[in-house]
Please model this.
Amino acid sequence: MTAPAYKRILLKLSGEALMGDDSYGINRAVIERIVAEIKEVVELGVEVAMVVGGGNIFRGVAPAAAGMDRATADYMGMLATVMNSMALQDAMTRGGLECRVQSALSLEQVAEPFIRGKALRYLEDGKVVIFAAGIGSPFFTTDTAAALRGVEMSANVVIKATKVDGIYTDDPKKNPDAIRYQSLSFDEAISKNLKVMDATALTLCRDQKLPIIVFSIFKPGALKRVVFGEGEGTLVRVD
Model:
C-alpha cells in the first residue's frame, strides 16, 4: 500500500457537522461515523490533531445572545467547543482510540490545559489531541485556532471538514452552475473572498506555508483519500 501523503494533520471540524440532519446538538450516529473515519487514518500511522467548532450548540442560544457583549458571547462559544470536544473524546474512547482534550481556557476538571510539548508527545505516541476553546481569547474564530494549532504542532496540512466537497466559485446549493476548484493559491482564495476560512487564518497559513484542504466529512472514505493525496476536495496551495 502507498504511504499516506501526510504524516501529521490538523483536522478542523465544524460544530454543525456534528448535528447531522438535526436542528442543533450532537447526533450520536454522525459522531460515531466521523470517529470511525478518524480511526481509519490513525491506524495507518497518521498523527491527528483536531479543532472543533461550537455552532451546533451556540447556535441554539444565539437568539438569547443578541445584543450581548461580543467578548462574553465569544467565551460562550468557546465553552460550546469544549462540550463538543468532550463528546468526541468519549466517542473515540468507546471506539478504541486514545484521545486527549487540551483547553485554551482553564477547565482542569474536564480538560488539560494547552501545553505544546505535551500535545506533541501525545501525537508522537499515536493519541488524537483535540484542542478546545479556540485560542482562549475572544474575537478569534475556530478557523484561526485551527491555523495556529496547525503551525504549533508542525502539521503537514490543515484539513477543513465541511458539508460541502470543496471550494466552489459560488454557493453550489444556490447556484447549480457553480464550479469546484481542484486547487487554488492562498492569494486567490483571499482576493476572491471565497469564505474558505477567515482572512486571519488564511494569512497565517499562507505566511507559514501550511496548505489547506477543504473536503466533505459526509462522503464515506473521504478523509482517507485526503491523507493519501488522492485529489479529494480542494487544495489551497502554497505557491
Summary: The chain has one domain: 8-237. The first helix runs from residue 28 to 42.
